[in-house]
Amino acid sequence: MKRPTPGVSAAERIRNSARELFYHNGIRGVGVEEIVQNAGVTKPSLYRAYESKDGLAAVYLDEFYGTCRTRFEEAEADFPDDPRSQILAYFDGLAERASSPTYRGCGLTNAILEFPDRDHSVRREARD
After folding, report:
1. By CB atoms within 10 Å of each CB, which of 47, 74, 86, 105 scores lowest?
2. Alpha-carbon distance 94 to 7, whole Å?
């Protein structure tokens, strides 16, 4: 088990671990044991903070959406009243991110593809 980072709560370590693992390996490709091992916590800590792996996935997807939204807002702030420059700035950033060897696409789209059942809670969260 990884040594805990001082000053970082168990819930935050779990969230950080899940974000990294879910993005790089897919939500279905990561087990609870791997998340807690990587976070340096126990399974009960995960279930106290997030109820379930699907609940943790919902938090990951919500944060992923927030990051995407922030990128749009930053482009808008950098180029007020210039929609063309806003979209070009967004796509310049996307091109830079996509050229990274660790880039795996959009976490929301990836989740939708991983969960074909339209009624699955993870797919609904990604869609919403």
Report:
1. 105
2. 33
Which residue, among 58, 34, 41, has the nearest Cα to 107 in the 3D structure?
Answer: 58
The one-letter amino acid code at 63 reads E
21 is in which domain, residue-wise?
10-127
Q: From the centroid of its chain, how far is CA 22?
A: 7
Gap between the Cα atoms of 23 and 110, Å rounded: 9
Q: Measuring CA to CA, which residue among 18, 26, 8 is closest to residue 104?
A: 26
* Tens-place pLDDT, residues 24-80: 999 999 999 999 999 999 999 999 999 899 999 999 999 999 999 999 999 999 999
In 31-65, which positions are buried (b, 16+ CB within 10 angstroms) versus exposed (e)?
A: ebeebbebbbbeeebbbebbeebebbbbbbbeebb
For the chain, what is the domain count?
1
Residues constituting the chain: 128
Please report, for the chain, how many H helices and E strands are present, in that order: 7, 0
pTM assigned to the model: 0.88
In a domain, residue 2? The reply is no
